[in-house]
Amino acid sequence: MAKEQPGKLQVKSFADHHVITQPNPLRKVLLRVPESDLDDPVGRAEKALAGLSGEFKNWMAIEADRLSAAHAAVLHDGFTDEAREELFRAAHDIKGDAATFGFPSAGAAAESLCRIIEHAPDLAAVPANLIAHHINAIQAIVRERTKLDTAVTASALSKQLRGIADVFLTHANRDRPEHLEAILAPSIVPAE
Known about the structure:
Layout: E1 10-13, E2 18-21, H1 41-77, H2 81-97, H3 104-119, H4 128-144, H5 150-172, H6 177-184
């Protein structure tokens, strides 16, 4: 199949310069559509997300159940490398997905749990209730999200957990000044 010969260059000469115009072969494949038929990709994406929004609660419930299963493994086997990693990944996934799925307070609680896992010098020394309270809070926020007036309570709970976690981490790392800066750095806790 032979290609069409490209159009010729047009050169217009002026006294002090030349203007070279190159042919545009894409004009042959360009499709003009009336303004009434313009596509709105953002609108299509928003419509698709609205169609999926009913499934967001189920997705978050699955992630929260994964977190609970990881915590159960820690309670059963202790903080093995594998159990620690799965607990961190489950909390980190919730932290990343929660705002998108409409659960920003669950994300804040998950972030606080991630900070404990990352910055505690010895996870076995972390009070079991501190981890359990984070996981129970995430479960409750996901479960109760559809009920009225839960957003304020969920946000307050997440902030309180973060405060308690910061106090614990500050105390646990008092002999590790290189960690204190990261621990004491503020983070943004989203409002619902």
